[in-house]
Amino acid sequence: MASLAVLAFASLATAQQIGTNTPEVHPSLPSQKCTLAGGCQTVNTSIVLDSQYRWLHNVGGYTSCQANGAFDPSICPDAVTCAQNCAVEGVDYSGYGIAVNGDAVTMNLFLNNNNVTTLASPRAYLLGEDGKKYEWFQLLNQEISYDVDVSQVPCGINGALYLSEMLQDGGLNNATNPAGAAYGTGYCDAQCPVTPFVVSDGTYEANLDSYGNCCSEMDLWEANSAATQLTPHPCDYNTSAPYLCSGDTCNTICDKAGCEYNPYRQGNPDYYGPGGTVDTTKPFTVVTQFVTSDNSTTGQLSEIRRLYVQNGTVIANAASKVSGLAPYDSLSDQYCTEQKAVFGDTSNTFAQEGGMAQFSRAIANGMVLVFSIWDDASGGMTWLDAYTGTGTNLGDKRGPCSIDSGNATMLQENYPNAQVVFSNIKSGEIGSTYGASAAARRTRSRIVRS
Question: Considering 165, 222, 260, 353, which one is annotated as catalytic?
């Protein structure tokens, strides 16, 4: 569900060549790699804005390569020439709603200038130490943790942190994409978005045929102060990501719905929220663990676990209290099958797209960490924090928010300072990133199913 908000300016798009008008300076955002034996070591990572938010213009000039969402045929007569003729510029990150302070990044939904509020809704990536490739996360039998402050994220807004099976170099190509990851190129996700540029047969080129740009996606964190969910989205392709789709294939190649774990939907309305077991008026740590069947980094993914740490206390994930469903507190093939059956889902697309086995391939290959904040002008974010369907059937209720709380106009008027803060990003061996004792790390509800 990690959608890109509609951009305010039609001339912004993904690009290849490097512009010379505005230098690109990546704000430093250090992260850490951890082991049980050696503790955590700092990695000199930084943050890079997605290329779709940048000015794309003709090389050596000032004419935008796109107008009203379409490429200028005088600049882009064909896909490869378009990539060669268009240049992408550097940016001032504060002008796109992004502020970095130490190991913390603040993502602002809106910009407020001269008493005028406009939509920013930025998307950015964690860039590796060399500044040329994205930081790479291969998390089989590993965990990732981060601190988050959602106190300024109201109903209807999604402050998201997720993993995408993008190319590590962003589709870097000396001829058609010398910009690459350093300029935030190469986005894809399980919703198969139609991006302005794609990688086709190894060449980064303009997407003149409107292909969907598909790849597996792990929604580590989709949340506001009222509701949260954790969702893997496998894609059933046997080639390297990204996969270009057209027609009906775009609706069947990836699990767009995913297999989600939302504590509220699972019968725990008081677990997450202001004053809840996880109190969203204060920052807390989120830990996600990718457990393999043989507890090795080469085994097959079998379970995705979640826990929290707040005020020095380790908080186990809420166990399901849904009638007819066992008290699961983690994601597994069995949970996904049983949950979808109990909630009356007509098809188990998670299983159809390969389930944990297929998603294991993406986790093993490596994924890119994505930061975003967005509102849902078309759907109001009701799938996250309000209700779907009639709101009366089992599984309809997703959170405590009203059905109209995600109205985009209202959000801009009433919450011009909406923001999410992510900090203290760590990854490594299970149990190594959040400072709990071995005993505390193992204290959780376990479900053994025959």
Answer: 222
